[in-house]
Amino acid sequence: MLNRSSGVDPNRGSSPLPEVAVPTPVFNRQQKVTQSDSRFFLSRYISAGTVFILWIPTYTLWPVFFFPLLYRSTNFAFSLVLSGAETHLSNYFHLLNRSANLLSGPCQPLWCLNHLKPLSCSADLFDIPVFVQENRPVPWDLAPPLGLQGSEKHLALALASLPESGLPQSLRRGSCRRCMVVGNGGVLYGSHLGSHIDQYDIIIRYVLNNAPVSGFERDAGSRTTIRLIYPEGAPHSANQYKKTTVVTLVVFKSLDLDWLTSVITKKPLSFWSKMWFWREVVDDIPLSPENFRILHPDIIRKTGQVLEKYSLKQGNMVPTLGASAVVMALQLCDQVSLAGFGYDMQHPAARLHYYESIRMDAMKAQVVHDVSAEKLFLRDLVAAGAVTDLTGAL
Predict the structure, then answer these.
(1) What is the DSSP secondary-structure string of 30-63?
(2) Residue 12 within a domain
(3) Is 266 helix (H, G, I), strand (E, B) or coil?
């Protein structure tokens, strides 16, 4: 054991055991390999980057080779957008040029009267009184809005509060006058017709959901000669009555006459009376008493009678304030133009009114008025040349 532990082989005399080979340190070898590998991988990265750069055009162009129809359809869609914008601009300039040409020409006396004669309904559209006046006959056999049956006392009080009840001096026939009836249709939105509308002699507007003017002057104009209102639809903002000559009440119930008396005399209605309105009504309108009138119910009644000839419905028809305003304009003016008229039911997503974002399909919910009959009636007026549809939606 001692001999083995001392490294002497007892069987071979004194020959020592062979030396154990000492392993070569691996640190330097690994370092050399690492440097070599880094050069190798670096060259691979450069190659891969070069391939990627060369591959980018191929990647972006491969749909052209494999899906040419995709590119063709995209280009076609883009061309449609450009063509739609071009069409819109063309219509826009055509509208403004047409309006400018109409205003630049001289007013034609008795134009509407002469062009109404060929229409079968023309006999019902002549010589209709516009405002209710004292000591003038009023159809009492029908209830409002087609007559004033049951409202005699209310009417007497309202007329007593009016300094004037007939046509204002500025509206009485003299020189040739041109009328503009401003509708509330969405077709007016973006028209930029406001400055043209303000140039007409008489501008008639009618209330529908307050139908604002202030804030929409660019498209709807700023002047108002006659504004047809009812209590629940009268604007609450004083700004909406700026540049307004006459506010005319359309009577739908006896209480509407009491409201007018209250507004003129500045004596508020009782709490009980206010409960009978279907929405909150304004207490004050910033105009003088001589700026108020009452619409003669014959305007509503006669308009309804004409519409019955265009409608499939039976019985007395209540027209919209828009159609009634057109008939009123025919009594007051030699030439009549319309802007913002026409409901395009073929495009339910189109804007319904110029002052709000409600869409056209909302009209399907209303059942009071026969919009289709009114459109046919107005189209006949346009076709006969009795009125001009400036915005072209009829």
Answers:
(1) HHHHHHHHHHHHHHHHHHHHHHHHHHHHHHHHHH
(2) no
(3) coil
Asked whether residue 281 is domain-assigned, the answer is: yes
Separation CA 313–CA 316 (nearest Å):
9
The rounded distance, in Å, linking the Cα atoms of 292 and 306 is 28
- Rounded Cα distance, 385 and 394, in Å: 13
- 180 and 157, same structural domain? yes
Residue 90 belongs to domain spanning: 77-104
Q: Are residues 90 and 186 in the same domain?
A: no
Helix (H) or strand (E) holding 94: helix 68-104
Each of the 394 residues of the chain gets a pLDDT tens digit; together they read 444 444 444 444 444 444 444 444 444 444 444 455 555 445 555 555 554 555 555 544 444 444 444 444 444 444 434 444 445 566 667 778 888 888 898 999 999 999 998 898 888 998 999 999 988 878 778 999 999 999 999 999 999 999 999 888 888 877 899 999 998 888 888 889 999 999 999 999 998 666 788 889 999 999 999 999 999 999 999 999 999 999 999 999 999 999 999 999 999 999 999 999 999 999 999 999 999 999 999 999 999 999 999 988 777 788 999 999 999 999 999 999 999 997 665 666 677 777 777 766 666 555 567 888 999 999 999 999 999 999 988 8
Strands (E) in the chain, as ranges, are: 178-182, 202-206, 224-229, 244-249, 292-294, 335-339, 387-389
Residues 214 and 98 in one domain: no
- How many domains does the structure of the chain reveal? 3
Q: Which residues on adjacent β-strands are paired with residue 229?
A: 249
Q: How far is CA 246 from the centre of its chain?
A: 26
- Decide if 262 is inside a domain: yes
122 and 224 inside one domain: yes
3-state secondary structure (DSSP) of residue 314 = coil
Token representation of residue 218: 């660019």
Same domain, 99 and 234: no
Q: Are residues 85 and 225 in the same domain?
A: no
If asked whether residues 88 and 165 sit together in one domain, one would say no
Token digits of residue 319: 């027209």
Residues 320 and 283 in one domain: yes
Looking up residue 227, the CATH number of its domain turns out to be 3.90.1480.20
Give the alpha-carbon dihedral of 289, 291, 296, 299, to 10 degrees: -160
